[in-house]
Amino acid sequence: MSVRKSESHNQFETLNWLNWWFKTKQVFSCTLNENLQRRNSWQDGLSGTNCPIPPRKNFTYVLQVKDQIGSFFYFPSLAMHKAAGGFGGIAIWSRPRIPVPFPPPAGDFTLLAGDWFKRNHTYLRAILNRGHKFPVPDGLLINGRGWNGYTVTVDQGKTYRLRISNVGLTTSINFRIQGHKMKLIEVEGSHTLQNTYAALDIHVGQSYSVLVTADQPAMDYYMVVSSRFTKPVLTTTAVLHYSNSFRGVSGALPWGPTDQIAWSLSQARSIRWNLTASGPRPNPQGSYHYGLIKPARTIRLANSAPIINRMQRYAVNSVSYVPTSTPLKLADYFRIGGIFNVGSISDYPTGGGAYLQTSVMGADFRSFVEIVFENSETTVQSWHIDGHSFFVVGMDGGQWTPASRKGYNLRDTVSRCTTQVYPKSWTAIYMALDNVGMWNIRSEDWARQYLGQQFYLRVFSPANSWRDEYPIPKNALLCGKAAGRHTRPL
């Protein structure tokens, strides 16, 4: 696969995905985690929006990266293909005349870290298909390598940018560098207050950018990734190599947190938006003043792990999502009945028994909503919303109530698209529904997503205007009950 780094501008970027299962009979699809796909859920790359790419075929996605300056990544989205790799980083740069709130670094490195399983993706999928729980990871990798398998070379005295993404399947991680501090500068396309950290928690699906200055004696240093909230604690390392060093890595690995939820919660609350940065900000209805907008609707989403038909499933508001052979976006566009029903998932936890359903929630274009993720389980959750950025206004332990709003940050919380929810806790977000389309809301824990912890949000505009949503692509793949139909001539 190949993807080119991009500057943020009004033009479209063309990404060519080669079917990486070229010599097999498997189909393939890919999604860009954290890219907003403005007015273009046609290109979202999920089973609810796109048909899979047939074997031995190519497909070209055309997308807009306007106002999304920062660090992102892509990955295979079907089945458990993500467990086989195929993911990569995307760096979207600012235009030369739009300054960023830090001096140009001497170098720019992408670090893709995450959990790793000895068993291949077909075996892992078979485990889930049999209704069993996912196994514990066998280890962690950094850019596809194990212990000290990857090296970043720096010049003493210079400052470098590290773009760190958690591309794993199930595991939150902590990242730190022996003898060095990290200055946080960006989270999923939002410039942050430049706080300094010795260690950073990065949950599944999240991306962070930090500046690191090579201000230590000339030698090699460990870059450490360890698992969070797991037993046993998994660890791997890469090497920060000073170009004038003749000494390899040595000494003990720097300390990292293991199961301290309060530590992680405190750090998450410390990440704030840089309101003085001159780069683009998401601005639907002036929503960078999000604290002055009253939400028109509150949606409460509770995750659960029910047993349905004697098999392990995962659910949202008691509904465990079932994919269809016809993508929901195509069924909606061609008005094909019997595929899904809008309103097939409730706005709030019902407390009823869990069941299987192709769940779609309806929403109005340009509405401003409050969403509360409620986690009554003992594991950390990671939630992602396609097509939108949102403001993480609050998170805390216990049960959310309307009184919890008194503790919201209504001024400078960071805007992002993936957020964690700690065990026995809640996380609240504000979000402007400024993007028409069929958008996936899912767990970034890929086993939970595969077994139903997801649904689709249909953001609808009655105008049916190209101003609100781009037309169906000419090269759109058509499958299921949409097979044999036509896209558009122009």
UniProtKB/TrEMBL annotation:
GO function terms (MF aspect): copper ion binding; oxidoreductase activity
Sequence ranges assigned to domain Plastocyanin-like in this UniProt record: 28-95, 108-245, 326-460
Origin superkingdom: Eukaryota
InterPro entries assigned: Cu-oxidase-like_N, Cu-oxidase_2nd, Cu-oxidase_C, Cu-oxidase_fam, Cupredoxin, CuRO_3_AO-like
SUPFAM superfamilies: Cupredoxins
Family as reported in the entry's similarity comment: Belongs to the multicopper oxidase family.
UniProt-listed PANTHER family: L-ASCORBATE OXIDASE HOMOLOG ISOFORM X1 (PTHR11709:SF11), MULTI-COPPER OXIDASE (PTHR11709)
Name recorded for this polypeptide: L-ascorbate oxidase
UniProt source species: Papaver nudicaule (Iceland poppy)
